[in-house]
Design a protein that fits this description.
The chain has helices spanning 2-7, 13-20, 30-34, 60-71, 81-91, 98-116, 130-144, 155-166; strands at residues 74-75, 78-79, 123-124, 127-128. The chain is mostly helical. The longest helix has 19 residues, at 98-116. The model is unreliable at 7-22 and 171-176 (pLDDT under 50). Bound molecules: 2-acetamido-2-deoxy-beta-D-glucopyranose.
Length: 176
Amino acid sequence: MARHFILCIGYLLASMVYVLAQNECSKIPPELEKASKDCCQPPKLKEGNAQNKCAKIDNIFCLLECVFNETQIIQNGQVNTANLKARFDVELQPDPEYIPIAMNAVQTCYTFVTQKMKNKDEKVGGCSVLPSLVSECTDTQIFVNCPANKWKSNQLCDSAKAYLKKCPVLNFPMNN
Ligand SMILES: *[C@@H]1O[C@H](CO)[C@@H](O)[C@H](O)[C@H]1NC(C)=O
């Protein structure tokens, strides 16, 4: 699941437009397009478990909905922290300093996205956009809260971080 949080960025423009409609965040600063995702060295993920039944789904919204269903990280309208931690403990085991960062990111993002959507979910291709938005946001939150020793500080990276701090749900471009 961490894999989906970390790697899905870049596929979600359609859903972003939905949440970002008319606000300050919809003006993407040009520096952001040039900043690279490896400003924050991504966590190493444990390999394996790739045989899960979600892997074959093409539609990104359905793929992430499937992952959320399978992992049961959202239950009764809130994040199930025990299920979430169980997942991250395994998947982020090669890079455990990311575990608390990723935990906080998911919780913050779930709250943020449900508030933005005012609890009315939207479907694309028959699937909820919520899991995709939470994943996208989680990715930017991990970036924003990157451990200092994994952060490459320079003007582009720092301004990308400042923008994403303000605008946590956004299609962050991948230039590498
Ligand atoms: C996820 O679970 C919901 C509720 O049980 C179900 O309606 C939906 O089809 C499931 N989504 C996927 C992609 O399996």
